[in-house]
Structure formats: structure tokens, C-alpha cells
Amino acid sequence: MRQWALALHGGAGKLARGDLTAAQDAAYRASLRVCAEAGRVILAGGGTALDAAQAAVCALEDDPLFNAGRGAVFTAEGKNELDASIMDGASLRAGAVAGISRTRSPITLARSVMEKSPHVLLIGAQADAFGQSQGLEQVAPGHFFTEPRWRSLEKFLGKHGLPLPARPAGAAETAAPLAYDEGVRGTVGAVARDQAGNVAAATSTGGMTGKRWGRVGDSPIIGAGTYAANASAAVSATGDGEYFIRLGVAREICALVEHKGLDLQTAVDAVIQGELKKIGGTGGVIAINCEGDIACSFNTDGMYRAVVADTLPLRVAIYRDDI
Ligand code: ASP
Hints:
Elements: E1 5-13, H1 22-44, H2 49-62, E2 82-88, E3 94-100, H3 106-116, E4 121-123, H4 124-133, H5 147-159, E5 188-193, E6 199-205, E7 226-228, E8 234-239, H6 241-247, H7 249-260, H8 264-278, E9 283-288, E10 294-298, E11 302-309, E12 312-319
The structure holds aspartic acid.
The site of aspartic acid has 14 residues, from strand 8.
């Protein structure tokens, strides 16, 4: 049995070998390594799965290459509306936020919702106000802006005959020239097992390019994009949110483990390659259990991912045939 283990993802999508330039490939691998390291040091030092999952996701949020926090995709109105959730497998406590636009780290706000409020899910400006009341860093909308995501929005709006909104104030600041467009979506997430034997999961996203009408995906929905229970596993998902919500993907995987006795890899494959594919959904998950087993499944070309454990050197992967 492993003493501790961590897996993270940076989204799944159009990621076949050859899609990224050599420079993009190298930049993503370097970033995945840095973000996994942020979680690894916590677990190796005896910290909690919750802290490790949050730290890895925080690092991914701050990295402009990924669709979460800085580098998030834009709504049709040219805004970044961010979603995140976190769950503690030991206590089944959970926290989530949807449609926030001012709090620098959505996953940190989700953790505050879990620990400092009597609620599970807060939305919009009032969720940001709660974050501010908790002393969490607030930023101007331009903080999340990156040029490649804006170009994806221009492309999307042109294709759908929608008007191009003005750029957010302070927008020219982050160029992120190596960001790759995996196809209008992306998400980041981490799952961890700590030395005390507890698991946790965390997920954060900007959602889908060009989303409208206050659309919210699966990432902040406990049971869909995120779930963690010591009795089964911790799961973080990425993909077509609408499909993940309809299947309750993260909880469904845990239910197969808990009630049907499936091993973790069989359970994630049953849902991602079976149930999800059957209804036309694309995406993937990472999962971890109390033994420290790590499982991963995706039905897209690729998925940015990394794993590390006390018995496993840090490994990063992007394409299907990477590991
Ligand atoms: N699941 C995210 C959403 O639907 C997007 C993604 O993971 O690609 O908002």
C-alpha cells in the first residue's frame, strides 16, 4: 500500500500527438511538473490530502496555460466566470463556487465555503463577497485575461454570428503565447491520498468558451465533476459538463467501487468508456483511493495529467500513448 499519492489533470480534449508544437509540449509538461510538485511536498511532509489537492489546483489556476483562474476561457459577453469545488473524503464535507469573477483562487474560495460557511455551493458576486469577507485576494477582471483565450472567443463568436464584446479592463497583461486551444474547454483538478489514509478531490475551471445565460458545468457540482469518500475514492473530472452532470460521473464511479466492489480502474473505465460514451459525452477523470491506487480514463485524444507517490517518481503525460 502507498503511504501517499497524488494525481492531477489539466483538462482533456483535442490533444493528439502532433497537435502541440514542440515548444507547447515542453511548456505544458514543465507546468504539470511544477503543479504536481506543489502537492507532492505537502503529502511527503505529512500534510493532508485536502491541502495537497488544493495546492496543486491553486498552482494550476495561477498558470495561464490552463483553463482555470488565470488563463480561463471567456463567456460570450467577454467575461471570465469561474467554477470550482473541493471535497474531503474523510468527513464528506464539501464546498463549491460557480460564476465567480473577482476571487483570485476559486478553489481557495470553495475551501472557505466548506470550512467557514454552513453551505456547500455559493454563486456569483455574492460568493466573491463572501471570499472578500474571509480575506481572500480579490483581483480586477483583467487578471484572468490571456490573449489565446480571447482569440478562441473571437473564433467562437464569429462562427455563431454573435457580436464581439469589448476586452476586459487591463487585458493586455498576460500574453501566454504557448497556450494551446484544446477545443473550447478545459479544467484542472487534483486527487490525493495522505499519510493518514484520507482522500480528497479538487476541481477548478473557466468552463466553456462562449458560454451564455449563466451556464454552469459539472466542475462545481458535487457528485458530477468532483467527489471524495474514503469508503470509495476521490474523483476529479473534465469534459462536456452537461453530460457529466446528467450521469453524476464522479459519484457514479464511487458508487461502482462502493456498492459493486469494482476496482478503481475498472470503475473509471466503465463510466468514461461506457456510460459517458453511450450518451455522447467526451472527457475524462482521475481518481485515487485509500490504498493510494491511482486510476485515469479519458475518451478524448489526450489529457494533461501527472502522477506522483511515495513509490512512484513524478510522471507527466499528455497524449493517449504517453504512459
Ligand atoms: N467540465 C468543464 C465544464 O463543462 C469543462 C471541461 O472540463 O473541459 O465546465
